[in-house]
Amino acid sequence: MGLWEALAARGQPLEVMRLVDDTGRLIRAPEAVFRAPEIGIGTFGSNITNRDITEVLDARAAAEPKLTRILGAVTDVRTRETGIDLTLDDGRTIAAAVAVAADGRRSKLREAAGIEVSTWSYPQSALVLNMRHTAEHNDVSTEFHTRSGPFVLVPLPGKRTSIVLVEKPEVAERLNAMNDADLAIELERRSHSILGRIEIESERQLWPLSGMTAKRVAAKRVFLVGETAHVFPPIGAQGLNLSARDVAALGEVLARARREGRDLGSAGTMDAYERARRIDVETRTRGVDMADRLLLSDALPAQVVRSLGFWAINRFAPLRHLVMREGLMPSFAAPRMMRGLKVG
């Protein structure tokens, strides 16, 4: 479909990632710097706004002759032994062999499949927006670790940056209530002026932080992808990439089932998807959760663990390279499609 070419044209390559301990605690972790050329790649990837991703996907889907687009909201879901029926808000009914639940953390499809979830919350909220600035970002993403959570600067094309500022809920609400000029001054202070003078560019979004994992990723002919299956805080740029691996793995599982003449919604097909995704989802979710809780902890042992971890990453190149490679793509659960290999 030529998706990547269209998306990359709107994206900003990311070459360097910096992790900076800005907690001001007694024991501070050393700065960790990850450079893509160290592991033989030009960039870690591209940063693309949600709006651009949505526009490109929408345009390509509309132009794809093999894809039928049905606009409408699902109001009722009925699972059967041999298929699944979806009722839309205009009264139409769609019968399918399987359904992919990509309808978010409050998924109707997941509920219809009887898949239970584990949920938890954090004493944090995330303020998200885009901004312009006077200094170059030089393809560098900087993640300041503060006592209240990460403050992430993600480079966009030109002298523009997307930020995710995680704070205590009451502080995040106070920041969100500021006018653009005052908020820009506060963001410049928190970023230590590394991007120069700042100007707010976009609307703001404020999200209470929470976590969620589905007990299964497939049941009753329903396959879960994205935030229907897993939710965690915005640490380490893992969420969207994990969701992309869901889609790639599901595509491979369904293609294999069709090639072998098996029912797409059979127990064997659903179990295959479960095996393909369970380890990746669990390790990423637990890893991000642990990183966030370590950052929030004022306990001296937690500070020591964080500091030793950052020191080891800086000191030992093989460990640093392993962290970079695994952060990009898990070696144990990487779908063939995302390794540039043909499916089947």
UniProtKB/TrEMBL annotation:
Pathway linked to the protein: Cofactor biosynthesis; ubiquinone biosynthesis
FAD-binding domain boundaries: 2-278
Q: What Pfam families does the database record attribute to this sequence?
A: FAD_binding_3 (PF01494)
Q: Record's family?
A: Belongs to the UbiH/COQ6 family.
Note the PANTHER family from the entry: UBIQUINONE BIOSYNTHESIS MONOOXYGENASE COQ6, MITOCHONDRIAL
Query: Does the keyword Flavoprotein feature in the UniProt annotation?
Result: yes
Origin superkingdom: Bacteria
Question: Which cofactors is this protein said to need?
Answer: FAD
Name the source organism.
Methyloraptor flagellatus
Protein's name in the database: FAD-dependent monooxygenase
Question: Which classification does the entry list for the species?
Answer: Bacteria, Pseudomonadati, Pseudomonadota, Alphaproteobacteria, Hyphomicrobiales
